[in-house]
Design a protein that fits this description.
Elements: H1 8-23, E1 29-30, E2 40-41, H2 48-68, H3 78-102, H4 112-133
Antiparallel strand pairs: 1-2
Helix pairs in contact: 1-2, 1-4, 2-3, 3-4
Length: about 140
């Protein structure tokens, strides 16, 4: 059985990924009552799906060493976490551009999911920095 410790960087990335997934459940943009019904967009419209998939991938990368047992896993590297984090950030930025073009960008009262996902991705970046600063285990 794998007795590997989780590590602070992976723990912070896991918390950020869960917060990002929660943010994907809420609306990411809404018009301010103009038109009936108001236009809404979410994480599953357009580039926002990249954020969702990358958050799932980050959680899978955290769970992978525990699911594999005693055999070493080649994907369990900081580079893999960095690639998944970069995909999430790129998807988030592209979704911001898309929302701005549609005129749906707003404050947290109209775009709660966008703000929650942004906080989650900031925590993921913090975890990636923690992981990069960790000393390799001998």
């Amino acid at each position: 059985m794998n007795r590997r410790t989780l590590g602070r960087g992976r723990l912070v990335i896991g918390v950020g990924a869960v917060i990002t997934l929660v943010g994907c459940l809420f609306p990411w943009g809404q018009t301010a009552g103009v038109g009936l019904p108001p236009e809404q967009t979410g994480a599953f419209d357009g580039f926002g799906i990249l954020v969702f998939v990358a958050a799932i991938a980050l959680l899978a990368l955290i769970a992978l060493p525990y699911a594999a047992g005693d055999q070493p896993i080649g994907l369990d590297r900081p580079l893999s976490f960095g690639i998944a984090g970069a995909v999430a950030i790129i998807g988030f930025v592209l979704k911001l551009v898309q929302i701005q073009g549609d005129g749906l960008l707003g404050l947290p009262d109209r775009a709660l999911g966008l703000w929650v996902a942004g906080v989650g991705l900031a925590i993921v970046l913090w975890g990636l920095a923690e992981m990069a600063a960790e000393r390799p285990k001998a």
